[in-house]
């Protein structure tokens, strides 16, 4: 699954780390135990020879004189029969050997180095015995003779025991590290199974099943956080995707109608010979339909641009009143046609992009004129509030039903499509108003009660640059 030279397997790394740590810990523990055992064994040897030393001193005292010791060595030998590896030598004042006990003829204790302190065991290496523990003591016998008793205990058995123990420790370290590595691998693999599961689940998600969500119920918190974020991302993608699909199907649908009108009226007209007037009427109506298509495409392009925020907003400060007056006179012709008055009042200072401002308000005025009762008046007003510069477009007409209010800002949404069936509107006007307000970081609101409908534009006072 992994590729590239710089990639690595976390699983392998963890296994390696487990094993390394295990080797370290086991080796340290082994070294400690080895040292403890070795010290303990040596201590026991020391206790053994120290005990024997006092026993031999007593035997020497019992013998009373050096001569007696030399003549009667068997009492000393007997004691040592049950202690293989322990050697004894008794010297007189001049250092001549009175007695020597050894199981080997090669052993000669006369050359054994003697430590400074009597009665304290020390490490020594007498010829023929090798590494050992030694202890000695000087004693004056009842006869007045001075003797020195030297005891030696070979370390050979202790060393061979320790050697076996060392091998065991290395074995334990090796087997332990291998075991920890294997167990660690198994545990880590199990721990990583939610990660693999996330991988599998994400690779299954495509455009047609965007509604699927990652599920790692019972997985570790960290992964649940990731899954949660991914799921939220999927929510957003899904919403955007649904909007886009809806948008394109609406678009296709809305472009079909004018095209069908053009085609069918052209076909009907061409079915027999017509007068010039009739041809003119056809061309006129075709141009109207084409203009409708053109406007729709232009609106779509506008929305697409604002969607990707490529539309740059050029903020400028201006008086709302003069702009609204200019727009009112621009719509004068349409208003007269509808038998409606346009009134302008209030004077706010607005910071906005002039072109976008005119476009937003125009869309509102055009809607207001569409829905105003004949003989009523459309009011354009503006005022300042602490946070916003506010522009309102109010008309008297049938109110928008509450169930539609939330949706009229959606693209292609029209409350009564049939009413404007052949008209210039595609249901994009308010969507554009909303986009424009978002570009200004402002907002648009609507209140529609009784026979009054008011659309309100809020332009923030302090505009982020
Ligand atoms: N002033 C208004 N009074 C009543 N209904 C309105 C008013 N303005 C907008 N609407 C409703 O909102 C819908 C969406 O408006 P809009 O986006 O401008 O689309 P269009 O004008 O193309 O129908 C309209 O179809 C209309 O039903
Ligand atoms: Mg409109």
From TrEMBL:
TM annotation in the entry: 16-37, 167-188
Top-level division of the source organism's lineage: Bacteria
Function noted in UniProt: Member of a two-component regulatory system.
Compartment list: Cell inner membrane
Protein's UniProt name: Sensor protein
Residue stretches making up the HAMP domain: 189-242
MF (Gene Ontology): ATP binding; phosphorelay sensor kinase activity
């Amino acid at each position: 699954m992994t590729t590239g030279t710089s990639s690595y397997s976390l699983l392998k790394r963890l296994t390696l780390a487990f094993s390394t740590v295990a080797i370290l810990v086991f080796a340290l523990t082994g070294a400690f135990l080895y040292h403890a055992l070795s010290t303990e064994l040596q201590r026991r040897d020391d206790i053994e020879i120290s005990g024997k030393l006092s026993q031999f001193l007593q035997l020497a005292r019992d013998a009373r004189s050096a001569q007696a010791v030399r003549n009667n060595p068997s009492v000393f030998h007997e004691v040592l029969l049950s202690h293989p590896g322990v050697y004894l030598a008794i010297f007189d004042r001049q250092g001549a050997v009175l007695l020597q006990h050894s199981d080997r003829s090669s052993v000669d204790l006369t050359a054994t180095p003697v430590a400074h302190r009597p009665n304290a065991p020390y490490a020594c290496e007498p010829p023929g015995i090798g590494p050992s523990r030694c202890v000695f003591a000087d004693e004056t016998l009842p006869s007045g003779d001075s003797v020195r008793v030297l005891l030696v205990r070979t370390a050979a058995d202790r060393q061979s025991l320790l050697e076996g123990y060392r091998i065991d420790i290395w074995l334990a370290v090796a087997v332990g590290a291998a075991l920890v590595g294997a167990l660690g691998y198994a545990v880590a693999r199990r721990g990583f199974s939610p990660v693999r599961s996330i991988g599998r689940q994400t690779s299954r998600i495509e455009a047609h099943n965007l509604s699927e969500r990652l599920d790692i119920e019972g997985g570790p918190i960290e992964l649940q956080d990731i899954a949660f974020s991914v799921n939220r991302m999927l929510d957003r993608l899904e919403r955007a995707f649904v909007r886009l699909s809806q948008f394109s199907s609406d678009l296709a649908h809305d472009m079909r109608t004018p095209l069908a009108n053009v085609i069918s009226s052209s076909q009907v007209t061409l079915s027999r010979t017509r007068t010039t007037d009739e041809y003119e009427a056809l061309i006129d109506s075709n141009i109207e339909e084409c203009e409708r298509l053109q406007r729709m495409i232009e609106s779509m392009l506008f929305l697409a641009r604002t969607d990707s925020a490529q539309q740059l907003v050029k903020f400028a400060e201006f008086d709302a009143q003069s702009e609204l007056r200019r727009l009112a006179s621009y719509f004068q012709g349409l208003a007269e046609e509808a038998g409606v008055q346009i009134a302008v009042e209030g004077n706010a200072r607005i910071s906005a992009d002039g072109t976008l401002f005119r476009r937003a308000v125009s869309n509102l005025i055009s809607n207001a004129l569409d829905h105003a009762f004949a003989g009523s008046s459309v009011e354009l007003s503006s005022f300042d509030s602490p946070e916003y510069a506010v522009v309102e477009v109010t008309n008297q007409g049938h109110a928008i039903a509450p169930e539609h209010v939330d949706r009229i800002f959606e693209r292609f949404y029209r409350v009564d499509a049939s009413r404007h069936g052949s008209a210039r509107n595609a249901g994009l006007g308010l969507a554009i108003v909303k986009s424009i307000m978002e570009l200004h970081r402002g907002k648009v609101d609507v209140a529609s009660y009784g026979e009054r409908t008011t659309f309100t534009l809020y332009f923030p006072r302090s505009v982020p640059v």
